[in-house]
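User: Quick sanity check before I run a bigger batch. Here is a single chain. Can you write out its predicted 3D structure?
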Amino acid sequence: MKNKKNIGFIVVFSVAAVLYILALELSKNTLWGWALAIAALTIMYILYTKFFSEKKWYIKVLSFICMFVVLFGIYRISYPPYRLMPAVSVKNPGATEVIRVAQGELTGVYNADNTVEVFTGIPYAKPPVGELRWKEPQEPESWEGVRVCDHFAPRFMQPQRQPMADSVVGLVVYNNFAWFDPTDNYQEAMSEDALYLNVWKPEGDVSKCPVLFYIHGGSLQTGSPSFSHYNGEAYAKRGIVFVDFGYRLNIFGYFADEELAEESANNTTGNYGLLDQIQALKWVHENISAFGGDPDNITIAGESAGSSSVNAICVSPLAKGLFRRAIGESSGICTNKPFHTFRPYDEALEMKKKVYDTFGAGSIEELRSIDAKELVKAAGEYNSMTVDGYAIPRQPAEIYRSGENNEEALLNGYNAAEADVFTLFGKVTGDNYAELLKDELGDCAEQLVKLYPPGDDPKAQYDDIMSAAWFSYSHYTWSRYMAKEGRPVFEYYFTKDNKGLGTNHAGELPYFYGNLASMPQNFTESDYELSETIMDYIENYVRTGNPNKEGLPKWDDFSEDETRILELGSDIRMVTDVNLDIYQILDTIE
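Assistant: Done. Predicted structure follows.
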């Protein structure tokens, strides 16, 4: 009987120990926490089997409670600390030569094979803290000596999942089963002081390299320029200077208030994150030649909210002359009524009441005194740009209709299953199909239901319509405006599936920027081949304004046939846009 009890205990204890160790790994707890946990589990096992197994039941229960308390304590004290992300994954990388920019001298580090120089954490504006919270970005301060730029700056303040939740998302969404990694036992640092940019340049003394200026996505609420999918090494190896950066997000970047407008010499409020982006672009235009970049050949690019931001920069008079071309992936704001990351000015001002009520504040001074960690709790609804009369003078659609937009060429497009991840937990049936469409699309939903009835799979039909409405329609509209102006425009349709995000929103990113190797478990040789082809297109476009070159499948200018776009998938070919009928109905929205 005693042996059976011990066997039962051993099985239960072993399962619990494995689950606990798994929790430590998923939560990225420190290695010394692992060591403490293993030591504690070993001691507990010995104590129980030697001393407590034959004791009365309440003694056993007490021993298990003590065990739980000890293990929970180890879990808490070994929780992953916050750290800055290193610029490169190389241990002890070599330092670059000193480079001088307007604010002072700096050095970066080399990548693994010394073909790329990486400079991270370069300030492009003063920290927007204290009295500078909710003010236009200020010019960065100069520094003495040589600034070492070998770590990314903190990501900007944003809502944050627990490390375990992040790991689970990695498993489910990215198919990331790289369980044990002794180098990732920390969390990325986060701060309101995060207006810094990063530069990847070809090694050595280079000049007049084209520049690719990238704006990260995240619904204007979250995101980090250190994310592996945005790494600029692949383009630097192709002779392109790549830049990305952090900017104000959520309530810090898109809060609007009349009192703030009155404070502003430009009478602006509500677009602080956009103003950061333009300030970063201005800094790059003025300083990128120090890194070998050509200030007269800058292409701005972005995905999701980053693409909406690109669209906004294209209509902002503040950005005129700071760049030449644009790349937009999976979002835009130039439709008559943008579906996301944009809101009317009066609506933006109306939402301020909720902030004051939430924090019991009566003035901007009181809001500025609230700790950023507390203020970010109100981040969820403050993720939209607006017409402020300064950064965005009028509705973007009006600016395009008048031909006042800034970009001289456009490369843009969308993925096959954009909306699926956003409707993942929504229940769509034949009974509620029409109602759900009306909630999202208003009066035009009736026409859509007639054209696309729910059928046998109403959820799939709903996802297709919302992918068109929320995402691809903005690119069709953007492309049409450019074609009407007689400016070069090239539109794509990404259809390559894989074991990760596939053709869902953001699925194209590792292909476009040459970072499939960051999650190699998701990709095959055909994926790498497609990525190389896509980067060939983008390199040609960034250099010349035309993605075509001998040896590549022909990518027709959208202005030649507004029904045809380039499929980027297992096949690369011009195809008819599958959503044309939906676009005609969406055109009726005013």
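The chain has a mean pLDDT of 93.

User: Great, the batch can go ahead then.
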